[in-house]
């Protein structure tokens, strides 16, 4: 609507707005500004000019991949300082306190949640899944959709882009990231299954595209390629 986006809210929305407010105040670029709640109870976000990424049909440029990973690192470095006192309600984690070895992750930083403007990464949207976690989980999820690893691309492209991702983030080696991908995407499948069992609409919609079995099959196919990727690194 105009220069805004209106999205449905849930019990997790106050915590997400607190998070986005903190990130905005502390100067993180590449996030939509929260402008409040409208009289229909929807959240009002700044509309970020640009386009999304149709991940099944597009492999983003190496430069865009590096920009997004650099953004993720900046986000993680900044969010380390976001340690709210007491319990917050997050969508996946529920009502929990942030423990000392966790940060608040985005948890869905797939390339389909990026906005690209004039050939550059300009924003990460869709913060509903944010909540406590480990930073490598975000990096693994990003790698899954944006290298991409969930479908087969030429091995030389996988290796080059994995190296770029590892260098841009600057924390873990390539094999550590690949192992984290298997763990993270197994967790993703389990969460979808649990959400469907609870009867949540968003997760039930995923059943129409064959989730969580689709991801489980893709993880198995990816696991079978890891040795080949390792040898080519
Ligand atoms: N702040 C925003 N600025 C521009 N476009 C947005 C914004 N938020 C959402 N969109 C558009 O709406 C689509 C769906 O929104 P998203 O927040 O990703 O929700 P979900 O994936 O849960 O449906 C996005 O892929 C994007 O095209
Ligand atoms: Mg989305």
Account of the protein in words:
This protein has 233 residues and is an alpha+beta fold. The protein has a single domain (50-232), classed as Alpha-Beta Complex (Aminoglycoside 3'-phosphotransferase, Chain: A, domain 2). The chain is 47% helix and 14% strand. The chain is built from seven helices and nine strands; from the N terminus they run βαββαββββββααααα. The protein has helices at 13-25, 62-79, 135-146, 155-169, 174-198, 201-207, 213-232; strands at 4-7, 34-37, 43-46, 88-90, 94-96, 103-105, 114-117, 120-124, 131-133. Strands 1-3-2 form a three-stranded antiparallel sheet, covered by helices on one side. Strands 4-5 form a two-stranded antiparallel ribbon. β4 (88-90) and β5 (94-96) form a beta hairpin. α2 (62-79) packs antiparallel against α3 (135-146), α2 (62-79) runs parallel beside α4 (155-169) and α5 packs across α6. The chain starts with a strand and ends with a helix. The model has no long low-confidence stretch (mean pLDDT 97). Adenosine-5'-diphosphate binds at residues 5, 7, 32, 45-48, 52, 113, 115, 125-126. Magnesium ion is lined by residues 112-113, 126.
């Amino acid at each position: 609507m105009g220069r805004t986006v209106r999205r449905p809210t849930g019990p997790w929305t106050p915590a997400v707005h607190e998070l986005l407010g903190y990130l905005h105040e502390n100067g993180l670029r590449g996030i939509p500004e929260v402008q409040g709640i409208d009289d229909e109870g929807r959240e009002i976000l700044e509309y970020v000019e640009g386009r999304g990424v149709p991940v099944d049909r597009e492999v983003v440029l190496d430069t865009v991949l590096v920009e997004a990973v650099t953004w993720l690192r900046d986000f993680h470095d900044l969010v380390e300082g976001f340690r709210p006192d007491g319990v917050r309600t997050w969508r996946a984690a529920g009502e929990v306190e942030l423990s000392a070895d966790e940060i608040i992750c985005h948890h869905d930083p797939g390339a389909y949640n990026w906005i690209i403007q004039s050939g550059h990464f300009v924003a990460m949207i869709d913060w509903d899944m944010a909540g406590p976690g480990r930073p490598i989980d975000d990096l693994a999820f990003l790698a899954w959709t944006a290298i991409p690893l969930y479908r087969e691309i030429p091995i030389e492209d996988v290796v080059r882009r994995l190296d770029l991702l590892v260098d841009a983030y600057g924390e873990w080696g390539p094999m550590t990231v690949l192992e984290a991908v298997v763990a993270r995407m197994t967790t993703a499948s389990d969460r979808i299954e649990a959400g469907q069992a609870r009867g949540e609409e968003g997760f039930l919609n995923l059943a129409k595209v064959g989730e969580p079995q689709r991801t489980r099959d893709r993880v198995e196919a990816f696991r079978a390629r890891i040795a080949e990727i390792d040898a080519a690194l």
